[in-house]
Every structure is written in C-alpha cells, then in structure tokens.
Amino acid sequence: MKEIINTGFKVGILGGGQLGKMLALAAQNWELETWILDEAPDFPAANVCSKFVKGSFKDFDDVYNFGKQVDVLTIEIEHVNTDALLKLEEEGVKVHPSPRALNIIKDKGIQKQFYKDQGLPTSDFEFYPGGAAIREAIDQGIIKIPFVQKSRTAGYDGKGVAVIRTEGDLDKIMDAASIVEPLVDIQKEIAVIVARNEDGEIRAFPAVEMEFNPIANLVEFLFCPANISEAIEAEATKIAKETIEAYDLCGLLAVELFLTNDNDILINEVAPRPHNSGHHTIDSAITSQFQQHLRAVVNYPLGATDATSPSVMVNLLGAAGHTGPAHYADLDKCFAIEGAKFHLYGKTVTKPFRKMGHATVVDTDLDAAKEKARAINQTLRIITK
Ligand code: ADP
Fold first, then answer.
1. Can you tell me which atom of ligand 1 is nearest the CA of 256?
2. Which ligand 1 atom is at minimum distance from the Cα of 156?
C-alpha cells in the first residue's frame, strides 16, 4: 500500500470554503498534507490547510498549475474548470471525482438525462432554453401547474430553483436554460452518502432525513437516523450504491432522494464531495464523511460508517435582513445545551441565510436531540451589530 504520510504526498483541494476547511481538519489528524486553491486567503480553509494557493478554481491555468503540484486532486465544489482536470488526468495526475462525472453533475439537465439513460429512478423532466419558452409551454397546456423549474447550471442551496405551485407563483419563473419537472408529492427528503475507492470498495452511511427552511429552500435540520422503514432504507442505500457505480467515481457521492407519498424513491440530485447532509458524521459516526472522502481519494480502506449516537444537525444561517460583519448573538446560551457541538466556519461577513456554521446535537433520544436543535435555531442569531 502506498505511503502517504511524511513522504511529501499532497492532497489538492479545489475550493476553500467550509467543506475544504473540514476536509483539511480531518487530514490534520493524520498529518496528511492538504493544499487548497481558492481566491481569498481569508476563506474558511485557509488557516487549517498545509498550503493555501491563491487562484480561481474556474480558471484553466490556475487549476492546471495547482494540479501539477499535488498527488491527488479533489474538490469541495462542482463548478470547477473540468478542461484543466481532463488535461491533468491525461498527464497522469489522479483526479477524484473524475472530470467526466463532474461534467454530468454540473448541468442538472445532463444529470437528469444520465439517470434516465442508466435506468436510475428520477422524476420526469423536459428541457427549456429560457423563461419565454416555459411561459409559451404553459399557455399551450404543455406544462401544467404545479411544476418546478431548475436552472441547468446556476443552482445551489435552493438558488436557481423556482417552485411554481399556483398561477400566483408564475412571476418566479427565471430566464435561464432550465429543466422543468412535475412537482413531486414528497413524503420526506432523505439523503444517503456513499463512498468508493479505486479498488471498488463501496460503503454507505445510514440514511438521513432533511428538513428545509421554507423561505430559503435550503436544509435547516437533518435527522439521523431517518424515520423510514428498513425496506426503504435498504432501497435508498441500493440506489445510492448503484449511482456511484454508474458514475464510476472515487470519493464521496451524496445522493439526495425524494421519498414520495406512494413510497417510491426518486433521485433528486447528487454531489460528488462532502455534503451538508453528512456534517453530523463528524460527531456521531465512527468515520466522518471528511475522513471517508480522504480515505477514498487516496485509495485507502474505507472506514466503518455506523452511527455512534442518534443526532440532529442544524445549519447556523445568517439572519434575514443582516449583511455585514458577523456577530453571534446568544451563542453562549447555545453552548449550555447538553450534547450540542458547534462548528463555526470563520466567515467574517454574514448575509441572509448564508451558512455560517452548523451544530450537531447528540442524544440517546432523537426527539430530545430535535428539541435541543430547534432551541439552538431559535436562540442563536447571526446578525450585524
Ligand atoms: P439545489 O441544487 O439548490 O439544492 P434542488 O434541485 O435540490 O436544488 O431543489 C431544492 C429543493 O426544492 C429540494 O430539496 C426540494 O425541496 C424542492 N424540489 C426540487 N425539485 C422538486 C420537485 N420536482 N418536486 C417537489 N419539490 C422539489
């Protein structure tokens, strides 16, 4: 097995946000060297990685020159320059996840088409070049309300998604190349994170259940274990494993799924990297998702994924109406909550609904953990003074 410690072996990470920070922290424990490429040296990961390189992960030359200096290159964000990754791969640099998988995942339209072609379950969808074509299709009765419009390339954390429930929502239609999906009758939104290494070993974390902030359309709470039957959990895990094999990728794949009112499971979308739906694993699983991603991309044996405790993760979001230097009002009161563990990302500026940190509450009783997490959500206010 290859030696990666004290050998100058370097893991390169494109992106220096909170996911890069938590990857670098996981690597620190093993003295594994991490290099990070991103624009500004005050980004969350900059202080904890071995070396911060200033540049853009969207720029061909910056990615290429960075990649030439590391032994394996990975990501914390999908929207990176994949042409540079393809060239690096041709020249012998290991790139995980593969640029081919990234090119499919980066475009929600191509991603949905991939599931259809692979026989993986997902909702129906149609392609539209822009807002005018969508309005025309509504007038002609081709698109029926309710529906969901998703920008093919501009989306993350609920941005680039317009949920059209009634005619009154029609002014939300975005003018962007999009897919249009019927509104799914969702019973629960769940996620399964799987990992795969170069040897083809695959392991899945237990499924989690997600609860969304109704205004911002992004994950607010996450519950582990998910309140689903064993049969649904087994089916969701099987779909996640089939999906990572279909993409033929190494590293983590977070598979976001809809459990419908008819108990069908549909793939919503995936992320080939550590993901918000796995943050609780730092505090309540034998192996964290960040350790697992590193194990996978360096082709080491994967770690056990069992939960060590029920847990609830709550995203600590910037308060609505506040943009500017961040102030964590009543954080001390939250620290008094038994079993709560805090992860602040070090972003100096808050914005409405910006992910500023997360807390994981571990408790032998999931309902008690939920109450504590809701208390944190109601108490802590990330504001400007
Ligand atoms: P993002 O990439 O921004 O996370 P998603 O595609 O995951 O966007 O959509 C965000 C949320 O919108 C989903 O988690 C879900 O709550 C809702 N949503 C998306 N697609 C559908 C759909 N077809 N039917 C019902 N709700 C949907």
1. 7
2. 3
Instruction: Give dist(CA 256, CA 81) in Å, integer.
Output: 24
Quickly count helices (H) and strands (E) in the chain: 11, 22
Q: What is the architecture of the domain spanning 10-95?
A: 3-Layer(aba) Sandwich (3.40)
Same topology, domains 10-95 and 186-383? Answer is: no
Domain boundaries, the chain: 10-95, 124-182, 186-383
202/195 Cα distance (integer angstroms): 6
State the first-to-last Cα distance of the chain, in angstroms, to the nearest integer.
Answer: 53
β-pairing, 327-329 vs 265-271, is unpaired
- Cα(300) to ligand 1 centroid in Å equals 34
Q: Take atom 20 of ligand 1 and give the residue whose Cα is closest.
A: 148
- Ligand 1 pocket check for 11: Cβ under 6 Å: no
Cβ–ligand 1 distance for 220 under 6 Å, the answer: no
Please tell me if the CB atom of residue 179 comes closer than 6 angstroms to any atom of ligand 1.
no
Return the ∠ at Cα 7 (arms to 24 and 93), rounded to 5°: 70
CB 216 within 8 A of CB 300: no
Q: What is the CATH number of domain 186-383?
A: 3.30.470.20
Chain segment 105-146, per-residue pLDDT in tens: 999 999 999 999 999 999 999 999 999 999 999 999 999 999
Q: Is 150 in the pocket of ligand 1 (CB under 6 A)?
A: yes
- Give the predicted TM-score (pTM) of the model: 0.96
How many angstroms does the Cα of residue 161 sit away from the middle of ligand 1? 7
User: Would you say 97 and 249 are in contact if contact means Cβ atoms under 8 Å apart?
Assistant: yes
Q: What is the mean pLDDT of residues 258-270?
A: 98
The CATH class given to the 124-182 domain equals alpha beta
Q: For 3-62, what is each residue's pLDDT tens digit? A: 998 899 999 999 999 999 999 999 999 999 999 999 988 899 999 999 999 999 999 999
Contact 305, 43 (CB under 8 A): no
- Quickly state the pLDDT bin for 218 (edges 50, 70, 90): confident
* C-beta separation of 22 from 84 below 8 A: no
Question: Ligand 1, closest atom to CA 150?
Answer: 6
Closest-CA residue to 78 (of 42, 104, 52): 104
Which atom number of ligand 1 is nearest to the Cα of residue 183?
24
Q: Residue 45 in contact with residue 16, Cβ under 8 Å?
A: yes
For atom 10 of ligand 1, which residue has the closest CA?
158
